[in-house]
Amino acid sequence: MLTNTFTIQNPTGLHARPATLFVQKATSFPCEVNVIKGTKKINGKSIMGLMTLGAKMGEQITLEITGEQAEQAMEELGKLLMSVHG
Amino acid sequence: MLQKGIAAAPGIVIGRAVVQKDEMVRYERRILDQDEVAPELGRFRESVRAADLELEQVKEKVRHEIGEEEARIFEAHQLFLQDPEFIGAIEEKLESERVNAEAALEEVRDSFVAIFESLDDEYMRERAADLRDVSQRLLKNLLGIHDQLQADFAEPVVLVVHDLTPSDTAQLDREKVKGFATNIGGRTSHSAIMARTMEIPAVVGMSDITEQLQTGDLVIVDGLEGEVHIRPDEAVVAAYEAKQQAYWKQKEDWARLVHEESVTADGHRVELAANIGNPQDAVQAVENGAEGIGLFRTEFLYMGREQFPTEEEQFEAYKAVAETMGKDRPVVIRTLDIGGDKELSYLDLPKELNPFLGYRAIRLCLDRVELFKTQLRALLRASIYGNIKIMYPMIATIAELRRANQILDEVKAELRSQSILFNDHLEVGIMIEVPAAAMIADQLAKEADFFSIGTNDLIQYVMAADRMNEQVAYLYDPYHPAILRLVNQVIKAAHQEGKWVGMCGEMAGESLAIPILLGLGLDEFSMSATSVLRARHLLRKLDYKSLQETAQHVLTLESGEEIRAFIKEEILNKL
C-alpha cells in the first residue's frame, strides 16, 4: 500500500471540475484508491464520495493506493491534486 | 390573465402552448424470490448501460449545439452512473433486502439527495438536482419509458412544463421551441442558465402554470419582466408585438455597442464599469462591454465556510479577475466589508443593537490587523497581473485612511524584504458612504487616489432611513437634493485635487441618474454588468456641455419627485 499527503492547490478545491477529473483518472487504474481527509475516508472512484468530502484549497488530503499500477496512479493523481487549473 | 414568475432568460415570445405534465412514473415496491435476485441485478445493470449510452448521445448533441461547458453536466451524470458508492449501494440493497431495482434505486437516491441537500454549500445542493435527473433517467429505462419529453414539434411552440431537467433542456428543438415556462426552478437552476445560453425567453417558478394552460392556448412569455400572459386578448397581443419588436431592435442597437467607447454626443469620455461579486462575474462583465470593474466585493471569499480564506486562495481570486480584465481595464477591489449585519460563523462578534452603525468593514480590519494584512498581501501580489486598485470601505475620518495606508506600507515592506513582486504604484482609494467622509472630501482627496461613492449605504445614512423598512422607504430617495448636493460636493473636492470619482451604487446605472451624474462631472459609473450597454446607449445621446448647466439647475430643485420629473421631461423625453 502506498500513501502520500498532498495540499490542494486548485482555488475551487476538490470540487466540481477537479473532482470529475480526479474520479475519471482514478477509475482508469485497476488499483484501489482511497482518499482521506481528517477522519473521513472515501473511495476515490466515487464522485459522490469526493464531493461530500468537501476538500478545499489549502487543505491536506492523503491518498492510500493498493494494488496494480499503484505507483503510476499515485504519481498521476498527485499531479492532479497539485495542479491549479482544471 | 397575467401570472408572475421569475425571469430566467430575457426576450418575449408570443405563441401556442404545448403543455406537458410529468408522466407519473409508477411501479410497486416488491420483495423478490431468491431466484429472482440475479436476473433483477442483470436488469438493473442493463438499464445503467442503456442510460449511460443515452447520456453519451445527449452529451455529444449538447457539446455540438450548445457548448463544452453545458456538455460537462452530462459528463458528471455519467460519473454518477459509474459511482461505486451509488450504484454499489443500490445493488447491495437489491441483494440484501431482495427488493426490485426501481425501489432500491429510489431509496438509495433519496438518502444521497438528503445528504447533498443538508450540506452548507450551494454547489452541493445543486448537485442534488443532477442526482434526481440521472436517477429519473435510470428509472425510466427500468420501466421501459423512452421519451423523456416530447421534443419534436411541427410548429413553433411555447413549452409549458412542471420542470425542465438539464436532459430535457438539451433535447429541445431550438428551431421549434421558442420559449418556456415552468412551475418550479430559480434564476440559477440549470434550465435557466441553459435558456440564457440558447437565447430563448423563459420564465420559471410559476408554481401551477401547467394547470392554468392547455395545449393550443395562446400564451405570451415575457422573460424580461418574468411574466406569463394566459390566453391574452388582441389588445394585449398587439402591445406585446410592439414590445417584442422594440426589444429586438434594442438588442441589435446595444450589441453594436459592446466594443464602442463610452463617450457623449459632444465627445466627453467616461468609464462604464461593472460591479462583481466573484471572479466568474468578470467574464460576464467583459461580454457586456464593461471597461473595468468599479467594485469587486471580496466578501464571497469569506462567506459560507468555516475558516478565513488563506492568502493563496485570495491571491488566486484577485489574480483571476485581473487577468480576465487584462492590463488596461482597471479592477477596483474593495477590502473586506464584513461585520455588522453580515456575519461570519467563524468570526465571533457580539450581537449589536445597531449593526449598520457598528463594528464593521474598515473599523474591524483596523482592529484585526492580521486579517487585514493577509488580504492586502494577496492584493499586492495579484497587482502585477493587471490593473488592480485597492479601495477601503466605510472610511469616516482621515485617521482611518492614514492607519490603513500605514498597514499597507508595512505589508509592502514585508513583501520587498522577501523579494516578492508587486505594483508599488497601485492606486488606493476610498469608498464615500459615510456622510462624514463626504463632508471632509476635500481633506480626504489630498491623501486618497480616488473616490467611489457608495450610494446604497450613503443614502440610508444621510436620510436616516433603513431601505428595508417599508414604512420609511419614501425617505430612501437617491434623487433627494441632499444626496445630489453631497455627490456634487464630493466630485468637486476630488477634482480640485486632480483625483477621479466613481460611483458604485445602484444609482450609477439608472437612466434618470446618469444625465445628472454626468453633468456633475462623475468620471466612472459602476453598475451591474447587464446595465452597461443600456447606459452606453443612453450616454452616447447625451450632451455633456449642456448637462453641466442642467445639473446645477437640478441642485436648486426642492424634492426628488421634482428632480425626476424634470430629467424625464427635459432630457430623456427629448432624446
Automatic annotation (TrEMBL), chain A:
<dbReference type="InterPro" id="IPR001020">
    <property type="entry name" value="PTS_HPr_His_P_site"/>
</dbReference>
<dbReference type="InterPro" id="IPR035895">
    <property type="entry name" value="HPr-like_sf"/>
</dbReference>
<dbReference type="InterPro" id="IPR002114">
    <property type="entry name" value="PTS_HPr_Ser_P_site"/>
</dbReference>
<keyword id="KW-0598">Phosphotransferase system</keyword>
<dbReference type="InterPro" id="IPR000032">
    <property type="entry name" value="HPr-like"/>
</dbReference>
<comment type="function">
    <text>General (non sugar-specific) component of the phosphoenolpyruvate-dependent sugar phosphotransferase system (sugar PTS). This major carbohydrate active-transport system catalyzes the phosphorylation of incoming sugar substrates concomitantly with their translocation across the cell membrane. The phosphoryl group from phosphoenolpyruvate (PEP) is transferred to the phosphoryl carrier protein HPr by enzyme I. Phospho-HPr then transfers it to the PTS EIIA domain.</text>
</comment>
<dbReference type="GO" id="GO:0005737">
    <property type="term" value="C:cytoplasm"/>
</dbReference>
<dbReference type="Pfam" id="PF00381">
    <property type="entry name" value="PTS-HPr"/>
</dbReference>
<dbReference type="GO" id="GO:0009401">
    <property type="term" value="P:phosphoenolpyruvate-dependent sugar phosphotransferase system"/>
</dbReference>
<protein>
    <recommendedName>
        <fullName>Phosphocarrier protein HPr</fullName>
    </recommendedName>
</protein>
<keyword id="KW-0963">Cytoplasm</keyword>
<feature type="domain" description="HPr">
    <location>
        <begin position="1"/>
        <end position="86"/>
    </location>
</feature>
<keyword id="KW-0762">Sugar transport</keyword>
<keyword id="KW-0813">Transport</keyword>
<dbReference type="InterPro" id="IPR050399">
    <property type="entry name" value="HPr"/>
</dbReference>
TrEMBL record, chain B:
<keyword id="KW-0762">Sugar transport</keyword>
<comment type="function">
    <text>General (non sugar-specific) component of the phosphoenolpyruvate-dependent sugar phosphotransferase system (sugar PTS). This major carbohydrate active-transport system catalyzes the phosphorylation of incoming sugar substrates concomitantly with their translocation across the cell membrane. Enzyme I transfers the phosphoryl group from phosphoenolpyruvate (PEP) to the phosphoryl carrier protein (HPr).</text>
</comment>
<keyword id="KW-0418">Kinase</keyword>
<dbReference type="InterPro" id="IPR040442">
    <property type="entry name" value="Pyrv_kinase-like_dom_sf"/>
</dbReference>
<keyword id="KW-0963">Cytoplasm</keyword>
<comment type="similarity">
    <text>Belongs to the PEP-utilizing enzyme family.</text>
</comment>
<dbReference type="InterPro" id="IPR008731">
    <property type="entry name" value="PTS_EIN"/>
</dbReference>
<dbReference type="InterPro" id="IPR000121">
    <property type="entry name" value="PEP_util_C"/>
</dbReference>
<dbReference type="InterPro" id="IPR015813">
    <property type="entry name" value="Pyrv/PenolPyrv_kinase-like_dom"/>
</dbReference>
<keyword id="KW-0598">Phosphotransferase system</keyword>
<dbReference type="Pfam" id="PF02896">
    <property type="entry name" value="PEP-utilizers_C"/>
</dbReference>
<dbReference type="InterPro" id="IPR008279">
    <property type="entry name" value="PEP-util_enz_mobile_dom"/>
</dbReference>
<feature type="domain" description="Phosphotransferase system enzyme I N-terminal">
    <location>
        <begin position="4"/>
        <end position="127"/>
    </location>
</feature>
<dbReference type="InterPro" id="IPR018274">
    <property type="entry name" value="PEP_util_AS"/>
</dbReference>
<dbReference type="Pfam" id="PF00391">
    <property type="entry name" value="PEP-utilizers"/>
</dbReference>
<keyword id="KW-0813">Transport</keyword>
<dbReference type="InterPro" id="IPR036618">
    <property type="entry name" value="PtsI_HPr-bd_sf"/>
</dbReference>
<dbReference type="Pfam" id="PF05524">
    <property type="entry name" value="PEP-utilisers_N"/>
</dbReference>
<keyword id="KW-0479">Metal-binding</keyword>
<dbReference type="InterPro" id="IPR024692">
    <property type="entry name" value="PTS_EI"/>
</dbReference>
<dbReference type="InterPro" id="IPR050499">
    <property type="entry name" value="PEP-utilizing_PTS_enzyme"/>
</dbReference>
<dbReference type="InterPro" id="IPR006318">
    <property type="entry name" value="PTS_EI-like"/>
</dbReference>
